[in-house]
Design a protein that fits this description.
globular; three-stranded antiparallel beta sheet; 403 residues; 3 strands; 15 helices; mainly alpha; 65% helix
Amino acid sequence: MLKKLVKNIFKSYDYSLIIVIALLSLFGLVMVYSASLVTRYEVPSDFFFDKQKMNLLVAGIFFVITALIPYKAMKSTKFLLPMVIFSLMGLVVLFVVGHVANNALSWIKVGARSIQPAEFAKLSVIIYLSAVYAKKQAYINEFNKGVVPPLVYLALVVMLVAVQPDFGTAGIIFLIAASIIVSSGMAWKNISKLVLIIICLIAPLSLIMKDEIFSETRMDRLVSYSDPFEDELDTGYQLANSYYAIGSGGITGLGLGQSVQKLGYLPEPHTDFIIAIISEELGIFGVGFVLLCLAYIVLRGIYIGLRCKDPFGSLLAIGISSMIGIQSFINLGGATGIIPLTGVTLPFVSYGGSSMVQLAIAMGILVNVSMFVQFEKKYKHPKAEKTAPHINHSVGNTMHTRG
């Protein structure tokens, strides 16, 4: 009986999603190697490739763990409370032992490696808001009791990330939270109240932090965004060279490893601007592969969320999918000039340890939610009641309704 149960569980995993995640991550590893062959750092040509290999290995371990552990375990207070405390402590400790990179106090040195607490704060916000709003389904439309309390943690996280200053990541966290709130079943009148409260809070904060928000560097980004070729050698340097890389790739690209812009012209080609190198070397086909994989992950995650009858699992899937979609749009939009540059990495493809591990944990959770949905669809019938894991749907159907 147990053997059959285990077999049915493993048959229920979403292997198409797992394959796409693996393919995109391995493709990213190859492109990190190609993009970082020549860097402005005094390191061997395979330095970032070797580090990314280790990042993928560690990420793979976390993926397997989170894919196997039932996601419902994260809904308990015993998990949520330590997660909230550690995520806030990580962001606070930055101001004591953190170090500056790319004009932001965002990193904590741990031996030879660095950890970016804000990356894990994204996932903490998703798990916390999903769990709390799932528990509050019975009174989700009571503004003071059901709507406001969870937002205290969100406000603290966004504030601590913004004052680093890292407005790009703070904005992503805010937008992820907004997607969860909109999907929680909350009445639109309460969402409208939240919007008004946020506007009233942001206005005075913008005046207090105007020197940081409207710093010379950020204003230069806005100017270069409108016309990077007006000051191609200064403020528009990054975006102009990104255009050159994308434009020179054409349909088929110059060939893997043949990028010209990575030879000192395009700063950080293995992180923020890796899509420009992909376009230059592999053309439309390389870019199309990345876009299709990212789109599949996002749309598959939303589909899983819509099919999941458990409000916690549904909100988790939607929050994780939103994170991938929002971050991908901001990175691709910045590299192509659709929006101003923010320094956000491309999920699964760009170099980064904290980002890769956080994404692996998030994808493991998403795959686990998908497994429970599929398992219940296939095997939850009278004869299987004794073997199928119990899933409580007492409030599952209320999430997709509006008061």
